[in-house]
Design a protein that fits this description.
single chain; alpha/beta; Rossmann fold; 2 domains; seven-stranded parallel β-sheet; 9 helices; binds nicotinamide-adenine-dinucleotide
């Protein structure tokens, strides 16, 4: 019998996979038998992660991709098609954060977050979708956040963009379900990655900020990137054939109740 959650024979592309959650997703997919195209705005970190997966016996390639550059998104989609063939799984993981309420958020801050977290997801998906439809379908997994389900205090711009990612996910799922496209998003709470480490360092008392962040989750700790990668593996797999348009919460119980 075929192993559950096997990605054997699949080609997956992950954005922002040079670090944190994206790197863990690339690793989980390679471990499950997929060939993975590791992309990041930092070509060096993408190459480093792909080399790490190859050393472990996985199949991985790396490419530079800045998701804010529309022509680059289209060029990468065309190049992947030419060099590696059909993409079955697309993970829109690249994302950036900002700490602040409205009056600590400039228009430039909002635009920086919007260009990566929303326009980036839009542009990358727009570049790959026609090829995925033509090839008979595929799975798209977007990294939203628990800030796309409930507002997170002092994260006005981030919350705004992540609500948009959840909306984008549901609209795309609805529009393309009959063409074999499934589109879901994951809504993590706090995950121990460089994203969070950098954010904590911005607080006047980083140790206190960390303790408070850990306490927001009912489990009393942050999630590990591999725990988010496990959700991505399920959503990308054929076992999730009936799962589309969902926002899967992996928040350590943060929003389960007060
Ligand atoms: N860490 C958390 O607690 C947490 C919680 C909820 C959601 N998320 C989301 O998960 C995703 C990954 O977060 P992470 O914690 O692994 O972050 P991270 O900062 O560790 O990694 C993000 C990666 O994205 C890349 N990136 C940044 N801008 C890019 C661009 N324009 N084009 C391509 N790549 C770009 C970075 O180079 C980096 O390698 C993000 O969308 C984030 O919003 C994270």
């Amino acid at each position: 019998m075929r192993r559950m959650f096997s990605l054997k024979g699949k080609l997956a592309l992950v954005t922002g996979a040079g670090s944190g959650i994206g790197a863990a997703i690339a690793e989980a997919f390679a471990d499950a038998g997929a060939r993975v195209v590791v992309t990041d705005v930092s070509a060096g970190s993408a190459a480093e992660q792909a080399a790490r997966l190859t050393r472990k016996g996985g199949q991985a390639e790396s490419m530079e991709l800045d998701v804010t550059q529309e022509t680059a998104c289209e060029a990468v989609a065309a190049e992947v098609d030419r060099r590696f063939g059909r993409v079955h799984i697309l993970v829109n993981n690249a994302g950036v954060g900002h700490v602040g309420r409205l009056l600590q958020t400039t228009t430039a801050d909002l635009e920086r977050l919007w260009s990566v977290n929303v326009r980036g997801v839009f542009q990358v998906t727009r570049a790959f979708l026609p090829r995925m439809i033509a090839a008979g379908g595929g799975a798209i997994v977007n990294l939203a956040s628990i800030a796309g389900i409930v507002a997170v205090r002092d994260r006005l711009a981030y919350t705004t963009t992540k609500f948009a990612v959840v909306g984008f996910t549901k609209a795309l799922a609805l529009d393309h379900a009959r063409e074999g496209i499934r589109c879901n998003c994951i809504c993590p709470g706090r995950v121990e990655t460089p994203f969070v480490t950098k954010m904590i360092a911005q607080y006047p008392d980083p140790a206190k900020a960390r303790a408070e962040m850990e306490a927001t989750q009912a489990i009393g700790r942050m999630a590990e990137p591999r725990e988010i990668a496990a959700a991505a593996l399920y959503l990308a797999s054929d076992e999730a054939g009936s799962t589309t348009g969902t926002a899967m919460i992996v928040d350590g119980g943060w929003t389960a109740g007060k």
